[in-house]
Design the sequence.
């Protein structure tokens, strides 16, 4: 499945304020170790004339999480797809995940959580980024 298959945008009812969907659960498989990793992803964007149906954000996460993946690439792919499709003022994606490769083999750290982000456009401004981070606490 491709991002375009799930990203239907709307112009009616659009807004110019930040839109956030937080704690989207996901499960994926590490492309390096073929071990599962799982956690939550939070997405925020600043619309510019177009918005998405709320389920489309969760579906977009699924499009990329169902592939062999690394967490760093996962957040970047989500952010880049939203920037390309919506052309918003900006996007930020934060992922928090547990990786079985670190908890079940090697160093065996069971409580380690990896956090990654992708920051695009207006979210590079500290005040915009901080507003999003406050909303996803």
Sequence:
């Amino acid at each position: 499945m491709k991002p375009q298959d799930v990203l239907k945008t709307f112009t009616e009812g659009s807004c110019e304020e930040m839109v956030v969907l937080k704690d989207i659960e996901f499960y994926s498989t590490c492309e390096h170790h073929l071990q599962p990793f799982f956690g939550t992803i939070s997405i925020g964007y600043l619309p510019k004339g177009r918005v998405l149906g709320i389920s489309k954000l969760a579906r977009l996460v699924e499009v990329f999480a169902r592939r062999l993946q690394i967490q760093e690439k996962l957040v970047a792919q989500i952010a880049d797809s939203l920037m390309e499709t919506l052309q918003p003022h900006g996007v930020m994606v934060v992922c928090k995940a547990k990786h079985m490769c670190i908890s079940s083999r090697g160093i065996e750290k069971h409580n380690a959580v990896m956090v990654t982000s992708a920051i695009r456009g207006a979210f590079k401004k500290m005040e915009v980024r901080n507003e999003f981070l406050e909303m996803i606490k």
